[in-house]
Amino acid sequence: MPQSLLLSRPSILSPYSLSILLSSHAKFQPFNSTIHLFDELRHSYNSAGLAFGVDEFNVLLRAFCVQRRMGEARLVFNRGFEPDVVSFNIRIDACCKKGRFLDALTVFDEMSKRNLSPTLQTLTTLVYGAGIAGDLPKAQELFDEMFERGLDVDRGAYNALMSCHMRVGNLKGGMAVMDEMVEKGIELDDVSYYTVLSRLKKLEDVCLVYGRMIGNRFVPRMRTVMLLMKVFCNNKRLDLGLQFWDYIVEKGLCLHCHVLDVLVIGLCGGGREDEGYRCFKQVVQSGRQPLDRTYRLLEGLLVKANEFKKLEELRDMMSRFMDLDTK
Fold first, then answer.
1. Overall average pLDDT of the 217-228 stretch
2. CA 275, 280, 281: angle at the middle one, nearest 5?
């Protein structure tokens, strides 16, 4: 949205349009230029009789924090506005994402000195930040503080604590957090499972979490599907790869060509081309086009095995996509 349009048409001013303009400006322009634009926008708001307060101030603050310009974000606090909880949450989030957990704690202390009560978002962000810093005791302390303050601890908070356990290699602790979620009726989501699975090194540990996921009839997102398929095929556990494939087919999950590619390469390398061909056919029947690499691998093996009927069928399947490309 052009800057001149916003300044000349106060009627279209809104937090959303303000966010677009200031974020773009903060990304490419120096601090003073962005502050000057902010002051011009404040004048436009005032001329239009629109309220201009802490919400707009937070838009400016977020614009610098998104760009990780933390020093300049601190200077924004001296703009004559009284920061609220959202203001501090923005700064804490930016510090944690930048790996500056001690700075985040300093901002948290400043928040307390202003008698602003932290929200669930505040403490959840700090737990994530403690995880990035590898400080499990502090993460647990912050997590416990949620209950002490009477906050309604949700799945995001538990996932943050679980992530911290997994980052420091504490599988037992991570699984304990998962168990506590189940006991309290908090449904595990893809973040929960991926958080644990992505940090595991041993196949038996992956199988343990995988078994729990399948036992709960949970339908994972594609990143988790891809992660598991790579683990199974890289460890020559083609039985688990096929079992998992059939599970996602049964659940109606979109059959991704890259997942198929990993599985087919594993199956063909293990002398199980027929099963690879079956999976390939399922993807085509779902209306998705497999990777050319997957097709060439199967084509070469079918030629070598003199499986001319299947070869003809394979080429016919792929020709459908080629016909669509030429239309």
1. 95
2. 95
